[in-house]
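[Q] Does anyone have a clean C-alpha cell version of this?
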Amino acid sequence: MNVPMWVWLATIGGLLVLLAIDLIIVDRKPHEVTIGEAARWVTFYVAVAVLFGIGIWMFADGTHAGEYFAGYITEYSLSVDNLFIFLVIMSAFAVPTIHQHQVLLVGIVLALVLRGIFIAIGAAAIAQFSWVFYAFGVFLVYTAVKLSRSNIGGDSDEDYEENRITRWSRKLFPVTEDYHGAKVFTRISGKRYATPLFIVMIAIGSADVMFAVDSIPAIFGLTKEPFLVFAANAFALMGLRQLYFLLGGLLKRLVYLSVGLAVILGFIGVKMILEALHTNALPFINGGEPLHVPTVNIAVSLSVIVGVLVITAVASLLKTRRDDRREAVAAAESADRSKP
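[A] Here you go.
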C-alpha cells in the first residue's frame, strides 16, 4: 500500500480539525458531561472512523479496508481496558467531575503523540529485522496468559501507584495540594506551581502509553501498513474519552473483559508466529527456509475479534445480572429474618 505524503498530511490535518472542534464545542466551558452528550460524541467518532474505512475500501481495496477495521476494533476494545485505569486515576486524585473531560483530552493527545513514535519505531523494526514478528508474537501470547489471570476493573485507590514519569513530573515542578479551577499551573507568592490537574494529565497520558506496549504489536499482527496502524490507533483514541463518560458504571459489569482481551491477544500472537514461520528467513529455523504452515487471513481475524467481543460482553452482562438477582434475594431473605 503506497500512501502519498499528502494523504498522511490530510489525515493528520483532519484529526487536528476534530480535536479543534472538540475543544471549541465541548471544552469551551468546563462542565459535567451527560450520558446523552457522551453518546452523541461516541456515535460521531465511530461514524467518522467507519467513513474513513469506507474511504480506504473505495480508494485502495477491500483487503486493506478489512485490515483497518480489524485494527480499529482491536485497538478500541483494548482501549476499554484503559478506561478502568482512568477511573482509578480520577478516583485516586479526586478530580472534580467538571474537569475530567479536559484531563482526558490532554492525556489522550499526549498518548497519541507518543503512540505515533512507537508506531514509527515498530514499522522500522519490522522492515529491518525479520525476527521482530517472532518476538511480537511470543510477547502477545505471554501478555494474553498474564492478562487472563489479572483482575481488570479493580476500583480501589490502592490499585493505582504512580509510575516513574508521574513521579519525575512531581520532582520537576512543585505541586499544590488543592485544585485551582481549570488551571494547570498557578503562581503562589510569586512562585510557579503545578496543580494536581497537571499531574493527573501526565498520569493519564503515561498510563495509556504503557498499554500501547501490547496494543501496538497486536495491530502490527493484523496489518503491516504504518498508515493503517496509525489511523486505527488515532480513531480509537479520539473517541475514548467520550466512551469513558458513556460507559461509566457499566465498566465494572464487564467482568470477563480480561478473558476476552486475552483471547484476542493470544489469537493475534499465534497469527503473527504462523506468518513469521510462513515467511521465515532465520537461518537457525528450518535452514532459513519458509515453513509450510497455515496462515490466518484478515476476514477470519476480523470475525474472531468481533465474535470474541460479542461473546465477552453478553457473558459479562448475563453474569452480573445473575449476581444482582442473587444479592437481591439474599438481601430480601436477610430482611425477613431480621423482622420480629
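[Q] Thanks! Anything notable?
[A] The CA atoms of residues 31 and 45 lie 20 Å apart.
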